[in-house]
Write a structure and sequence with these properties.
The protein has 372 residues and is mainly α. It is 64% helix and 0% strand.
């Protein structure tokens, strides 16, 4: 019997395809609300949003890969530097593009000019950068725009999940520094169960968690972090997990049952974490799309840029041509933006992962100055 650790190859798997698929699923899910097409009625048998399910899948993949990244890191500082490069540069550029490109398009169409755009007292564009700079989204609107779209006022409603992603990175760094990931991995299972318990408590008795901790009061945060640590557990125990088609089928049936019965129901959330994690990484190993991302991983760009593009399309009434046109145009235009985002921002940033600040003080250009 082979185990998951033996089968999963870091440079030959279909995770790139799956990440892109999940990002596209978020675009599909958002198209209903942002385009004014109502709820996801095509799949009304499923209890929950497909966008939420896709985000849960992202967190599972991150839990697996980020835990592996720490195990392979030479130090916690290098680990955190790599994680910073993966999230922040793309995020900051997205904020800039929003106030310098997306919002001015809408402002110009609304007012006929750009006069007083940067002086706007309602959701000031400069303030949009300042208050959202450290990932936590405190302002969604820009210059009082987008009031006449199906989902008003927000330019980018997808970015709010990134703060939870980075918090999970920090949690793995702390656990690794305490030697828990290598020497006490069962503790990570305990974290998963604790997060599920908090999610259950808040689901059954809303507001109860706030009496104990702000963490337990944040139901959505608990859910995402729970799935992240589900992926982390999968990696830590990958040498003990049998890789089998039969287990995959069982996990797939359990996953489908949990989704149908309700991804927000606590008991099914507990089952969905391990079963969905197994399904994702079985597919990553078995699907024939290992070269899908040979030109780059465009999933991050697709995720962070789809929302504003969909809002602009709704502003210009493109949604009146029907759901299919709106969704496909949203996906196509966002992909065109995700490609340069990866090649010009994300990839160059990741190329700095081995950069050392000390190297700035050891260059030949600086040495002659010390002799003066």
């Amino acid at each position: 019997m082979r185990n998951l650790s033996q089968v999963f190859e870091s440079k030959k798997n279909s995770l790139g395809f799956l990440r892109f698929l999940f990002a596209a699923l978020v675009v599909f899910s958002h198209s209903f609300v942002l385009g004014g097409f109502g709820s996801e009625r095509i799949f009304k048998v499923f209890q929950g949003s497909y966008g939420e399910l896709a985000v849960d899948c992202f967190f599972i993949i991150s839990g697996f890969l980020i835990t592996r990244s720490y195990i392979r890191s030479v130090s916690i500082s290098r680990f955190l530097w790599h994680r910073f490069l993966r999230i922040f540069p793309g995020f900051w550029v997205c904020l800039l593009i929003t106030i310098l490109f997306f919002a001015p398009i809408v402002y110009l169409a609304t007012h006929g000019n750009l006069n007083n755009y940067f002086q706007s007292k309602i959701d000031n564009p400069i303030n949009y950068i300042k208050v959202n700079f450290f990932l936590r989204m405190n302002q969604y609107g820009v210059a009082g725009l987008l009031n006449n779209v199906p989902f008003p006022a927000a330019f980018n409603g997808s970015l709010w999940t990134l703060i939870y992603e980075f918090k999970c990175y920090l949690a793995i760094g702390i656990l690794g520094r305490l030697h828990i990931l290598k020497s006490a991995r069962v503790f990570v299972i305990g974290i998963f169960i604790f997060l599920w318990g908090g999610y259950t408590l808040e689901s059954l008795i809303p507001g109860t968690g706030a009496r104990f901790s702000n963490l337990l009061a944040d139901k959505e945060g608990l859910r995402m972090m729970m799935y992240f640590f589900s992926g982390s557990v999968l990696f830590l125990y990958s040498k003990d997990i049998i890789f089998s088609t039969r287990i995959f089928i069982f996990s797939a049936v359990l996953t489908l049952t949990s989704i149908i019965c309700g991804i927000h129901q606590p008991i099914f959330a507990l089952l969905l974490g391990p079963s969905l994690s197994y399904v994702i990484f079985w597919l990553a190993c078995e699907l024939p799309f290992s070269h899908f991302d040979r030109y780059g991983d465009f999933s991050y760009g697709l995720y962070i840029y789809a929302f504003p593009i969909q809002q602009i399309l709704a502003f210009f009434k493109v949604n009146k041509y029907g759901f299919s046109v709106y969704f496909l145009l949203s996906l196509g235009l966002t992909t065109l933006l995700a490609i340069p985002s990866y090649r010009w921002i994300e990839k160059p940033s990741l190329n700095l992962r081995d950069f050392k600040i000390s190297s700035l003080f050891n260059t030949k250009l600086i040495r002659p100055l010390t002799k003066l």
